[in-house]
Amino acid sequence: GESVGLHLPTLSVQEGDNSIINCAYSNSASDYFIWYKQESGKGPQFIIDIRSNMDKRQGQRVTVLLNKTVKHLSLQIAATQPGDSAVYFCAGVRGADGLTFGKGTHLIIQP
Amino acid sequence: DGGITQSPKYLFRKEGQNVTLSCEQNLNHDAMYWYRQDPGQGLRLIYYSQIVNDFQKGDIAEGYSVSREKKESFPLTVTSAQKNPTAFYLCASMKGYTGELFFGEGSRLTVL
Protein backbone atom coordinates (compact mmCIF):
# COMPACT_ATOMS: atom_id res chain seq x y z
CA GLY A 1 0.00 0.00 0.00
CA GLU A 2 0.87 3.63 -0.05
CA SER A 3 3.44 4.83 2.40
CA VAL A 4 4.47 8.42 2.60
CA GLY A 5 7.00 9.77 4.99
CA LEU A 6 9.20 12.74 5.75
CA HIS A 7 12.88 12.52 6.53
CA LEU A 8 13.14 14.92 9.46
CA PRO A 9 10.64 15.56 12.25
CA THR A 10 12.04 19.06 12.90
CA LEU A 11 13.75 21.63 10.69
CA SER A 12 15.12 24.87 12.10
CA VAL A 13 16.00 27.74 9.74
CA GLN A 14 16.91 31.38 10.04
CA GLU A 15 14.34 33.92 9.02
CA GLY A 16 15.00 34.97 5.44
CA ASP A 17 16.76 31.74 4.49
CA ASN A 18 15.28 29.15 2.14
CA SER A 19 13.75 25.98 3.61
CA ILE A 20 13.70 22.55 2.02
CA ILE A 21 11.40 19.88 3.40
CA ASN A 22 11.74 16.37 2.03
CA CYS A 23 9.36 13.47 1.59
CA ALA A 24 9.68 9.92 0.28
CA TYR A 25 6.91 7.66 -0.95
CA SER A 26 6.70 3.97 -1.65
CA ASN A 27 3.73 3.52 -3.98
CA SER A 28 4.55 4.33 -7.58
CA ALA A 29 0.85 4.15 -8.45
CA SER A 30 0.16 7.51 -6.80
CA ASP A 31 -0.22 10.07 -9.54
CA TYR A 32 -0.82 13.09 -7.42
CA PHE A 33 0.87 14.57 -4.35
CA ILE A 34 -0.10 17.44 -2.13
CA TRP A 35 1.74 19.48 0.49
CA TYR A 36 -0.25 20.70 3.47
CA LYS A 37 0.63 23.23 6.17
CA GLN A 38 -0.77 22.81 9.66
CA GLU A 39 -0.48 25.57 12.21
CA SER A 40 -0.77 24.74 15.89
CA GLY A 41 -4.28 23.69 16.91
CA LYS A 42 -5.71 24.05 13.41
CA GLY A 43 -6.58 21.82 10.51
CA PRO A 44 -4.15 21.35 7.60
CA GLN A 45 -4.32 23.78 4.71
CA PHE A 46 -3.47 23.08 1.09
CA ILE A 47 -0.21 24.64 -0.10
CA ILE A 48 0.63 23.20 -3.47
CA ASP A 49 0.15 20.02 -5.47
CA ILE A 50 1.98 18.20 -8.22
CA ARG A 51 1.02 15.46 -10.64
CA SER A 52 3.29 12.58 -11.54
CA ASN A 53 3.74 13.84 -15.10
CA MET A 54 5.48 16.92 -13.73
CA ASP A 55 8.94 17.42 -12.22
CA LYS A 56 8.43 20.85 -10.77
CA ARG A 57 5.67 23.22 -9.87
CA GLN A 58 5.96 26.71 -8.49
CA GLY A 59 3.64 28.76 -6.40
CA GLN A 60 4.04 31.95 -4.47
CA ARG A 61 7.34 31.52 -2.58
CA VAL A 62 6.94 27.74 -2.72
CA THR A 63 8.23 25.16 -5.16
CA VAL A 64 7.58 21.44 -5.18
CA LEU A 65 9.99 19.06 -6.89
CA LEU A 66 9.14 15.49 -7.78
CA ASN A 67 11.77 12.86 -8.55
CA LYS A 68 9.94 9.73 -9.63
CA THR A 69 13.15 7.77 -10.13
CA VAL A 70 13.92 7.79 -6.40
CA LYS A 71 10.30 8.36 -5.29
CA HIS A 72 11.09 11.60 -3.58
CA LEU A 73 9.46 14.99 -3.42
CA SER A 74 10.46 18.18 -1.72
CA LEU A 75 8.91 21.47 -0.74
CA GLN A 76 11.06 24.55 -1.01
CA ILE A 77 10.03 27.74 0.74
CA ALA A 78 11.87 30.87 -0.32
CA ALA A 79 12.78 33.67 2.10
CA THR A 80 11.24 31.96 5.11
CA GLN A 81 9.07 34.17 7.29
CA PRO A 82 7.81 33.75 10.89
CA GLY A 83 4.36 32.93 9.53
CA ASP A 84 5.82 29.87 7.83
CA SER A 85 6.31 28.20 11.19
CA ALA A 86 4.09 25.12 11.14
CA VAL A 87 4.06 21.38 10.55
CA TYR A 88 4.27 20.43 6.89
CA PHE A 89 2.84 17.19 5.54
CA CYS A 90 3.20 15.56 2.20
CA ALA A 91 0.33 13.37 1.09
CA GLY A 92 -0.17 10.86 -1.69
CA VAL A 93 -3.59 10.75 -3.26
CA ARG A 94 -5.59 7.53 -3.14
CA GLY A 95 -8.27 8.86 -5.44
CA ALA A 96 -11.68 9.28 -3.83
CA ASP A 97 -10.53 7.10 -0.93
CA GLY A 98 -8.63 10.05 0.44
CA LEU A 99 -4.98 10.71 1.06
CA THR A 100 -2.11 8.95 2.80
CA PHE A 101 -0.16 11.39 4.95
CA GLY A 102 3.41 11.37 6.11
CA LYS A 103 4.27 12.12 9.74
CA GLY A 104 5.10 15.75 9.15
CA THR A 105 8.07 18.06 9.58
CA HIS A 106 7.90 20.85 12.11
CA LEU A 107 9.46 23.96 10.58
CA ILE A 108 10.87 26.32 13.20
CA ILE A 109 11.87 29.84 12.19
CA GLN A 110 14.65 31.46 14.16
CA PRO A 111 14.85 35.28 14.21
CA ASP B 1 -18.39 31.74 3.76
CA GLY B 2 -18.12 28.12 2.65
CA GLY B 3 -16.24 25.73 4.85
CA ILE B 4 -16.19 22.86 7.26
CA THR B 5 -17.32 23.27 10.85
CA GLN B 6 -16.35 20.86 13.56
CA SER B 7 -17.73 20.88 17.07
CA PRO B 8 -16.95 20.82 19.86
CA LYS B 9 -13.39 22.12 19.63
CA TYR B 10 -12.49 20.55 22.98
CA LEU B 11 -14.20 17.61 24.62
CA PHE B 12 -13.54 15.63 27.77
CA ARG B 13 -14.93 12.18 28.31
CA LYS B 14 -14.85 9.62 31.03
CA GLU B 15 -13.74 6.11 30.21
CA GLY B 16 -16.60 3.93 29.05
CA GLN B 17 -18.63 6.75 27.53
CA ASN B 18 -19.46 7.20 23.89
CA VAL B 19 -19.00 10.65 22.39
CA THR B 20 -20.09 12.09 19.04
CA LEU B 21 -18.09 14.68 17.13
CA SER B 22 -19.97 16.87 14.69
CA CYS B 23 -18.81 17.77 11.18
CA GLU B 24 -20.84 19.99 8.86
CA GLN B 25 -19.85 21.35 5.43
CA ASN B 26 -21.55 23.81 3.11
CA LEU B 27 -19.15 23.31 0.21
CA ASN B 28 -21.49 20.93 -1.60
CA HIS B 29 -18.75 18.29 -1.61
CA ASP B 30 -19.80 14.67 -2.02
CA ALA B 31 -16.94 13.02 -0.18
CA MET B 32 -16.18 13.47 3.51
CA TYR B 33 -13.47 12.03 5.72
CA TRP B 34 -12.47 11.59 9.33
CA TYR B 35 -8.81 11.51 10.32
CA ARG B 36 -7.14 11.00 13.65
CA GLN B 37 -3.92 12.80 14.54
CA ASP B 38 -1.65 11.85 17.46
CA PRO B 39 1.32 13.94 18.65
CA GLY B 40 4.24 13.72 16.25
CA GLN B 41 2.24 11.56 13.88
CA GLY B 42 0.66 12.03 10.52
CA LEU B 43 -3.05 11.81 9.86
CA ARG B 44 -4.63 8.38 9.85
CA LEU B 45 -7.91 7.69 8.08
CA ILE B 46 -10.78 6.46 10.26
CA TYR B 47 -13.83 6.47 7.95
CA TYR B 48 -14.84 8.11 4.74
CA SER B 49 -18.01 8.59 2.77
CA GLN B 50 -18.20 9.25 -0.95
CA ILE B 51 -21.96 9.66 -1.10
CA VAL B 52 -24.98 9.99 1.16
CA ASN B 53 -26.02 6.80 2.97
CA ASP B 54 -22.73 5.11 2.19
CA PHE B 55 -19.42 5.01 4.04
CA GLN B 56 -16.26 2.95 4.12
CA LYS B 57 -13.79 1.96 6.82
CA GLY B 58 -10.40 3.56 6.73
CA ASP B 59 -7.16 2.29 8.18
CA ILE B 60 -8.16 2.56 11.87
CA ALA B 61 -11.96 2.17 12.00
CA GLU B 62 -12.13 -0.09 15.06
CA GLY B 63 -13.92 1.58 17.97
CA TYR B 64 -15.50 4.26 15.77
CA SER B 65 -18.79 4.60 13.94
CA VAL B 66 -20.19 7.13 11.46
CA SER B 67 -23.38 7.99 9.62
CA ARG B 68 -24.07 9.97 6.47
CA GLU B 69 -27.77 10.75 6.37
CA LYS B 70 -27.25 14.14 4.78
CA LYS B 71 -24.69 15.41 2.30
CA GLU B 72 -23.72 18.22 4.63
CA SER B 73 -23.17 16.16 7.76
CA PHE B 74 -20.77 13.35 8.70
CA PRO B 75 -20.73 12.81 12.49
CA LEU B 76 -18.18 10.53 14.12
CA THR B 77 -18.94 8.53 17.26
CA VAL B 78 -16.02 7.45 19.39
CA THR B 79 -17.27 4.40 21.24
CA SER B 80 -16.15 2.89 24.51
CA ALA B 81 -14.56 0.13 22.44
CA GLN B 82 -11.87 2.53 21.25
CA LYS B 83 -8.95 1.70 23.52
CA ASN B 84 -6.98 4.91 23.12
CA PRO B 85 -9.39 7.66 22.09
CA THR B 86 -7.44 10.70 23.29
CA ALA B 87 -6.42 12.47 20.07
CA PHE B 88 -7.03 15.35 17.71
CA TYR B 89 -9.80 14.52 15.23
CA LEU B 90 -9.99 16.17 11.83
CA CYS B 91 -12.90 16.15 9.44
CA ALA B 92 -12.41 16.95 5.77
CA SER B 93 -14.28 17.03 2.50
CA MET B 94 -13.01 16.58 -1.02
CA LYS B 95 -13.72 18.68 -4.07
CA GLY B 96 -14.78 16.22 -6.74
CA TYR B 97 -12.05 13.63 -7.24
CA THR B 98 -9.24 16.15 -7.27
CA GLY B 99 -7.63 14.69 -4.18
CA GLU B 100 -7.58 18.09 -2.50
CA LEU B 101 -9.02 17.92 0.99
CA PHE B 102 -10.56 20.83 2.82
CA PHE B 103 -10.19 20.46 6.57
CA GLY B 104 -12.12 21.67 9.57
CA GLU B 105 -10.38 23.17 12.59
CA GLY B 106 -10.40 19.89 14.47
CA SER B 107 -11.81 18.52 17.72
CA ARG B 108 -9.51 17.61 20.58
CA LEU B 109 -10.86 14.70 22.63
CA THR B 110 -9.39 13.90 26.02
CA VAL B 111 -10.41 10.83 27.96
CA LEU B 112 -10.06 11.23 31.71
In short:
The complex is a heterodimer of chains A (111) and B (112). Chain A has 111 residues and is an all-beta fold.
Descriptive report:
The complex is a heterodimer of chains A (111) and B (112). Chain A is mainly β and 111 residues long. Chain A has strands at residues 4-6, 10-14, 19-25, 32-38, 45-51, 56-58, 62-67, 72-77, 86-93, 99-101, 105-110. With 112 residues, chain B is an all-beta fold. In chain B, 0% of the residues lie in helices and 51% in strands. In chain B, the strands form 2 sheets. In chain B, strands 2, 4, 5, 6, 9, 10 and 11 form a 7-stranded mixed β-sheet that branches. The termini of chain B are far apart. The mean pLDDT of chain B is 92. Classes of the chains: A mainly beta (111), B mainly beta (112).
Keywords:
heterodimer, A: 111 residues, mainly beta, 5-stranded antiparallel sheet, globular, B: 112 residues, 7-stranded mixed sheet, 4-stranded antiparallel sheet
Find the count of extended strands of chain A (DSSP E, 2+ residues): 11
Q: How many distinct helices of chain B?
A: 0
Overall body shape of chain B = globular
Catalogue the unreliable spans of chain B. Answer: none
Radius of gyration of chain B: 13 Å
**Structural shape of chain A:** globular
Distance between the termini of chain B: 36 Å
- Report mean pLDDT of chain A, rounded to a whole number: 87
**Helical proportion of chain A?**
under 10%
Structural class of chain B: mainly beta
The CA-CA distance between the termini of chain A, in Å, is 41 Å
Percent in helix of chain B: under 10%
Order of helices and strands of chain A: EEEEEEEEEEE
Count of distinct strands of chain B? 11
Strand content range of chain B: over 45%
Mean pLDDT of chain B: 92
